[in-house]
Automatic annotation (TrEMBL):
This is Transcriptional regulator, AraC family. PROSITE patterns: HTH_ARAC_FAMILY_2. It comes from Ruminiclostridium papyrosolvens DSM 2782. Pfam families: HTH_18. InterPro entries: Homeodomain-like_sf, HTH_AraC, MarA-like, Tscrpt_reg_AraC-type_HTH. Keywords: DNA-binding, Transcription, Transcription regulation. One of its GO terms (molecular function) is sequence-specific DNA binding. Residues 8-106 form the HTH araC/xylS-type domain.
Length: 140
């Protein structure tokens, strides 16, 4: 399988199952490759582990919901497979740079982005000191 096609299949697979637990047996069946090979090829092509990519995609989608819905943060976290609020908050802060409740208060636009050919998803953004100034954070 062509590497471009492989990545397209992987991203499509992940995006269509973002609110479910990723079934690696199904992934192996869909691609026809072993899980170790899938992980290695994904790491080489995307410069990040398959696990990290999936986590980032879940957090990006959760961030969108945190920002644009009134659903409880626990409900949002649970819908993306986090077992409790602490696990969701820790993962969210590690990826985004702020907690879900802090993000909800910020005036930040979260957009869609092209992930690969024909596949669009929520843009992952990472807050840093520069982007947080004037975005609802108290400046001292």
């Amino acid at each position: 399988m062509d590497k471009f096609l492989f990545i397209n299949v992987m991203i499509t697979f992940i995006e269509t199952r973002i609110k479910r637990k990723i079934d690696y047996d199904e992934l192996v069946y869909e691609t026809g490759f072993s899980l170790p090979y899938i992980r290695e090829l994904f790491q080489c092509q995307m410069n990040k582990s398959l696990y990290r990519y999936i986590l980032e995609r879940k957090i990006a989608n959760a961030a969108f919901e945190c920002r644009y819905t009134d659903r409880s943060l626990l409900s949002i976290g649970m819908s993306y497979g986090f077992n409790n609020a602490d696990a969701f908050t820790r993962a969210f802060k590690r990826i985004v740079g702020t907690t879900p409740s802090e993000l909800r208060k910020m005036d930040i636009t979260i957009r869609r982005t092209k992930l690969c050919a024909g596949v669009y998803g929520i843009e992952l953004f990472i807050l840093n000191d520069k982007t947080m100034k004037g975005k609802g954070k108290n400046e001292e």
